[in-house]
Amino acid sequence: MILHPLMSFMLAAIGVFSMNCSSDPASPEPVELTALEKKLVQSDNTFGLKLFKEIVADETGKNVFISPQSISMALGMTLNGANGETKQAMQNTLELAGLTDQQINESYESLIDLLVGLDPKVKFQIADHFFLSNSRQIIHQK
């Protein structure tokens, strides 16, 4: 089944925050997440699985790779500018209902800090926007 390996990878990638994946003594130590960080990771996992299910339904027989964490982070930033019904719909879609803007923003910031500091051998960057040039090349800008 095409979903199983990708879902496992996605859950493992998001779950790496709280586990030490190597017996190498130089590996980063496990990090205990706060209750809010755990809620955010759970929300991102649920959203990511629903999103992936929708995408692969339209892409039958094709290999599909997405970054649910990136998508939820981008939509989480967009959520800051929403209000009313749009905000509530976004919170429900992202599985973030019941969390305040401050809780969401602080949890994302904390998880980003964890990713950046998790392993000095890993480079983690977040782009806040991309442009597509006429030559169809993606131009990254921070």
- Biggest sheet features: 2 strands, antiparallel
Distance linking N and C termini: 38 Å
User: What's the total count of β strands?
Assistant: 2
Q: Number of folding domains?
A: 1
Could you please describe the fold and organization of this structure?
With 142 residues, the protein is mainly alpha-helical. The chain has a single domain, classed as Antithrombin, subunit I, domain 2 (Antithrombin, Chain I, domain 2), CATH 3.30.497. 54% of the residues lie in helices and 6% in strands. The chain has five helices and two strands, in the order H-H-H-H-H-E-E. Strands 1-2 form a two-stranded antiparallel sheet. Helix 1 (3-15) packs antiparallel against helix 2 (35-58), helix 2 crosses helix 3 (68-79) and helix 3 runs antiparallel to helix 5. The radius of gyration is 17 Å and the shape is globular. It starts with a helix and ends with a strand.
Question: What's the structural blueprint in terms of helices and strands?
Answer:
Elements: H1 3-15, H2 35-58, H3 68-79, H4 84-93, H5 101-118, E1 129-132, E2 138-141
Antiparallel strand pairs: 1-2
Helix pairs in contact: 1-2, 2-3, 3-5
Brief rundown of the structure:
The chain is mainly alpha-helical.
Write out key terms for the chains shown:
142 residues, mainly alpha, Antithrombin, Chain I, domain 2
